[in-house]
Amino acid sequence: SSQTITVIKGDGIGPSIVEAAIQVLDKVGCNFNYEYVEAGLTALETTGELLPQTTLDAIARNKITLKGPLTTPVGEGFTSINVTLRKKFNLYSNVRPVISFKGTKARYENIDIITVRENTEGMYSGAGQIVKNEGELAEAMSVVTREGSERIVEFAFELARREKRKKVTIVHKANILKSTSGLFLKTAREVALRYPDIQASEMIVDNACMQLVMNPQQFDVIVTTNLFGDILSDLCAGLVGGLGMAPGANIGKDCAIFEAVHGSAPDIAGKNLANPSSVILASVQMLEYLGMKDKAEKILAALTDVIASGDRTTRDLGGSHGTTDFTAAMLERL
Ligand code: NAI
Ligand code: MG
User: What Pfam families does the database record attribute to this sequence (predicted)?
Assistant: First the structure.
């Protein structure tokens, strides 16, 4: 194909796992062109900017981006690059699936949950950030709109319908956050009525955390606001063996960024320890988005087999091998 993919290798473990994913994509004959650009700490060091204009231009031009995790330096003046990217390209849905793979150290089997996280507003709106009284008082604004709620809930129900799923759970905290979460819930209920073929249920976020740990198999598709979605998706990753198994797609009207759920993992960076499955699974999401279902299934089957066989898996999965061995096992299967 003549599809060009923008690639941001990212910081920390990013380059090693993104390179693994690209080897896998090439191995199944995707024939993508790759345009490599920088963001994050790597970009700051070489260009003086966390998010150079050339990077933004490439993301806009090619529409499809595969991205490694980025380190946002902690400290004043640095807004999260991820939050910026999601807002700038209006990538309003963050789709984070987790599925059980046999052969991990996960506590559960038969998990198949997709968290659909609102990606541009809520507590991450960035609005009204004020520190007052010489640092004694801090404020930030949660912004929820009907339009933003409607489009994310519609996205979740459309996804459920397309993928022949049975249930969408609307997760909220409308009992306490009456205005913001209240508007989200009210809008979600209205949208749910338009999908009589899909079962809609509601759950308050704290109970959802407990239910996910006690009885995760009851969940199918979850739709929720930004902050809750961020937290619940890491919890879901924990159900299937950890962050190394969790991909995420940031999808807007005509632009998408595929990445891992996790960050740059400074504690294991440069040690050949990272599990590349997160970004490989993000590539699978990318192929599905591009309508390349056969290749997506091939990669998924190879990954399933590598993990099930315990052949050359990484430490987080219970194995004793590194990123490169794991990737080699994938490439051999393909
Ligand atoms: P993290 O997600 O990088 O790491 C959390 C834990 O999971 C660590 O113990 C790490 O070793 C482990 N882990 C993560 N990915 C793994 C993989 N592929 N294989 C094996 N183990 C893995 O979270 P942390 O340490 O809180 O954040 C580090 C940096 O990443 C921060 O600068 C943060 O801002 C950034 N970050 C970036 C994200 C993105 O670019 N999408 C998302 C989350 C955090
Ligand atoms: Mg997160």
Answer: Iso_dh
Residue 36 designated active-site = no
Contact, 308 vs 276, CB < 8 A?
A: no
Strand pairing partners for 118?
93
Q: How far apart are CA 90 and CA 32, in angstroms?
A: 25
- What ipTM is given for this predicted complex? 0.98
Q: Where are the domains of the chain?
A: 1-91+247-334, 107-239
Which candidate in 27, 67, 173, 298 is catalytic?
A: 173
Which residues contact residue 187 at a Cβ distance below 8 angstroms, ignoring those fewer than 6 apart? 146, 149, 150, 153
Active site residue 9: no
How many CA atoms lie less than 13 Å away from 172 in the CB half-sphere? 24
- pLDDT exceeds cutoff 70 at 65: yes
The pTM score is 0.96
**From the CB of 277, is ligand 1 less than 6 Å away?**
no
Distance CA 182, CA 202 (A): 12
Q: Candidates 3.30.460.10, 3.90.550.10, 2.60.40.2550, 3.40.718.10; correct CATH number of 1-91+247-334?
A: 3.40.718.10
